[in-house]
Amino acid sequence: MKRNIILLLAGIFLLAGCKDLLVPEIENNRDLNGVNYPPNDAGLPFGILLNGYNRIPTNSWSFNDVATDDAVTNDQNNGFLKIANGQWTANNNPLNQWTNAYAAIQYLNIMLRDVDTVQWAADPVVSKLFRMRVKGEAHGLRALFYYHLLQAHGGLSESGAVLGVPLNLEVQGPAADFNKPRATFEACMQQIYSDLTKADDLLPLDYENIADAALIPAKFGSITSEQYNRAFGAAFRGFLTGRIVKAIRSKAALLAASPAFSNGNTTTWADAANYAGEVISLKGGVGALSPNGITWYSNAAEIAGLADGANPAEILWRNNYGDNRDLEQANFPPGLFGNGRINPTQNLVDAFPMANGLPIGNTGSGYDAANPYTGRDPRLRMFILVNGSTAGPNSTLINTAVDGPTNDALNKVETSTRTGYYLRKLLRQDVNLNPNSANNQRHYKPHIRYTEIFLNYAEAANEAWGPLGAGKYGFSAYDVIKAIRKRAGVGTTNGDAYLEEAKGSKEQMSALIRNERRIELCFEGFRFWDLRRWKLNLSETAKGVSIRNNIPAVINVEVRQFQPFTTYGPIPYGEILKFGALEQNKGWR
């Protein structure tokens, strides 16, 4: 245990902007059994809190998309490939959040138990503010981990009841009763809401310096701007805030309102819409959708200019940035010295409409099967390398045809595409992998993008009030989707006739919203979870394109083998063996 604490303390010094918390100086290291922290030991308990931050799952970069109809991989050892091929079991689950989340929750419970015993700063007023903040962060992070547990492990009992996970709200020592039954999904949601409300009450909306004490929220009492800034100033950007808490509430409510989990819980589509609407309203409304948010990952000047902890307009919360080329090494085509790992499917390509906004299968769309990439939604070429695209620092032509002359061709070598497509989204095209002139570029991973929250609102508002229902915040699902498509350059030449048609039908608008979500959030780890919460077909065959003599032909690439019960993930098999009170989700063994 002492070794773990030393590692936690080492992590403190790696985070920029935390030096205020290290006054007074750390004097020594102790284990976690003591409740009364000496006055000069603010670093130790903050290190415990950091353990929660370090365990936050990140959707981006997991690429569970290869277990969906959006992508396959050429890496035959990929865990998501194996579960898509029928090898998903309760003891072989690459989506398992159980161990990581409950470890984080244990640390957060320790923090909530001990936070009032810590002298966080020499100034008693500042120490009180830190105490409020740390409590808020711990409650908010605990809610986030319960959300991830519900997403990965919530499911149905044998009787059909919607179950959540065991609720551990106290520190579990050696004598604790670990054999706890699963709480209902509703009870877990109410605990998430409770934690988020407490966090919202204790945290500032954002961490920013305040020059005038008159701007300090009343909940923090009568304090000076200097005292406020020491606890809640810009030095702490990147840590949990009230704005982030509201966004987590939106994510959790959308999950709860969705078809897979809605039976027996009290969260409604209107609740989910209002929680997302609050975040959008704070952002500035529908008109505040970031103009360059589609390419957030490759806006070079914007990324280069990011201050520590600061966010560009598209990003609500992100991790620290780093200079590397790992994504490009994994996913550039072999002709650019990459491994071509993630291969988008023809299924996803077909989901992109024409530039005029009409689906490719609609009469009058202008789609030409002989020239399938002409006149399409601009996002197609932004996100996917199609045959004839250029890529890399020298704008190299990529030929994916089966009769292509390079290793970029379909199934040419082990690192070649299996579908006729390569990933473009998330990758910096200014990265060079040539061993003679290799370079890195700055990347960051978003925890939450504003576009996700906009899409959360559109989905929930349409289900609650129909396409044009404005709700309490004065904008509708139609308004949001119109803004998203306009930003993408879709339907701008014909008044987006398809959207105008869809606004007359809740069902048609629902299909359009789901398709826009699929496109906008592709390869960011959403599709896997979305298909399940919507209770849609998981076993659609992944398709590709074989181009020979410039003639494209659709091919079957991978048959998916999901059982009906895999709408819900399993409780880990080892936990079921250890604890008789735990009930496995229906269908899993």
UniProtKB/TrEMBL annotation:
Question: Which Pfam families does the entry link to?
Answer: SusD-like_3, SusD_RagB
Q: Which compartments does it reside in?
A: Cell outer membrane
Chain ranges of the RagB/SusD domain: 333-588
| InterPro entries per record | SusD-like_N, SusD_RagB_dom, TPR-like_helical_dom_sf
Superkingdom of the source species: Bacteria
The record's section on PROSITE patterns has: PROKAR_LIPOPROTEIN
Give yes or no: UniProt keyword Iron: no
Tell me the keywords, alphabetical order.
Answer: Cell outer membrane, Membrane, Signal
Enumerate the spans annotated as SusD-like N-terminal domain: 61-209
- Specify where it is mainly localized: membrane
**Does the record bear Signal in its keywords?**
yes
Q: Which family does it belong to?
A: Belongs to the SusD family.
Q: What is this protein called?
A: RagB/SusD family nutrient uptake outer membrane protein
Identify the species of origin: Chitinophaga hostae
Q: Highest lineage ranks of the organism?
A: Bacteria, Pseudomonadati, Bacteroidota, Chitinophagia, Chitinophagales
